[in-house]
Design a protein that fits this description.
- There is one protein chain.
- With 278 residues, the protein is α+β, with helices and mostly antiparallel strands.
- Helix content is 26%, strand content 22%.
- Helix 4 crosses helix 7 and helix 6 crosses helix 7.
- The longest helix is centred in the C-terminal third of the chain and has 20 residues.
- The protein binds a DNA duplex (16 and 16 nucleotides) through helix 6.
Length: 278
DNA sequence: ACCGGAGCCTGTTAGC
DNA sequence: TGCTAACAGGCTCCGG
């Protein structure tokens, strides 16, 4: 679910909420959520650790601990992290028990509780010494300066898969998912069904620019809020207001009026304007 | 190396 | 209203 802009919003929101706080106790209710190490070792290793640094790589949230290890969270489709206030001291007041979709609970020294909740159970959490063991295979970060049109060209060169599938491939480019792939291809005027290797350099430059513009606009709007995504606290993201094609199948293209086409590529719903995108 | 499809999960929505 | 099928911001694994 969350893509680069949503994950970036998560990290920016979590940093002031968690920085300097210490985990007193961990509980894992769905062991498969913990990818590395096993759930028992995870609860043991995370206890007593303090949140020290905050970062993102692709769609992975990187929470650096004072032990030097990194707690890495991938929300996949429906994962969410929420910081819950301490239970009320008044014994008669309503408590806030975790529901059946809450799979990991971290009790903090402030009395607060950081909860990982995930309806579809696709998300994963790692606790590792070496971040690269989890994120080492990812492609370039689209918003870093090193991501030049040439880099995108190299990663698409010779590829026969359609460009939509390649944008979703995290080793080609990190952080782009279904929304921002469709929106970027629309802004670049490129048909998502085209083979990646068939794009000329001028088209690659357009796609490169479109990816950066769309991702930055997504961050600016604090991400897109659909059924299953909202930032950890405060306002919801608003980028869905700016969608040009995503989930607009059958509706008129804002640019030319032709109906937006919905099809399936790489097993994912794909939306494009057949007239504006070639 | 690369590509496409099955599988992982549960909930919501569209269609008969 | 009730059932069923399709769909959902993602990724890994496996066979060709």
């Amino acid at each position: 679910m969350p893509e680069l802009p949503e994950v970036e919003t998560y990290v920016r929101t979590l940093e002031p909420l968690l920085k300097g706080k210490t985990v007193l106790k961990a509980e894992v209710r769905w062991p498969r959520t913990i990818a590395v190490p096993d759930a028992a070792r995870f609860t043991d290793l995370v206890r007593g650790r303090r949140f020290a640094s905050f970062g993102r790589r692709g769609k992975y949230i990187l929470l650096g601990l004072d032990s030097g290890e990194t707690l890495i969270v991938h929300l996949r489709m429906t994962g969410e992290l929420r910081l819950h206030p301490p239970p009320p001291s008044d014994p008669g007041a309503a408590a806030n028990p975790a529901d059946k979709h809450t799979h990991v609970l971290l009790a903090l020294d402030t009395g607060e509780e950081l909860r990982y909740r995930d309806m579809r159970k696709f998300g994963r959490i790692w606790l590792v010494e070496d971040e690269a063991s989890v994120v080492g295979k990812l492609g370039p970060e689209p918003l870093e300066e090193a991501f030049l049109p040439r880099v995108l060209a190299d990663n698409l060169a010779g590829r026969k898969a359609n460009v939509k599938a390649l944008l979703l491939n995290q080793t080609v480019l990190a952080g782009v998912g279904n929304i921002y792939a469709d929106e970027s291809l629309f802004h670049a005027g490129i048909d998502p069904r085209r083979a990646g290797g068939s794009l000329d350099f001028e088209e690659i430059e357009r796609l490169h620019l479109a990816l950066r513009k769309v991702l930055l606009a997504g961050i600016e709007a604090q991400g897109s809020s659909l059924q299953n995504y909202a930032p950890p606290t405060g306002a919801k993201g608003g980028f869905q207001e700016q969608f040009q094609v995503f989930r607009r199948g059958g509706e008129p293209c804002f640019h030319c009026g032709a109906p937006v086409t919905r099809t399936v590529l790489a097993q994912r719903s794909t939306h494009f304007c057949p007239s504006c995108q070639s």
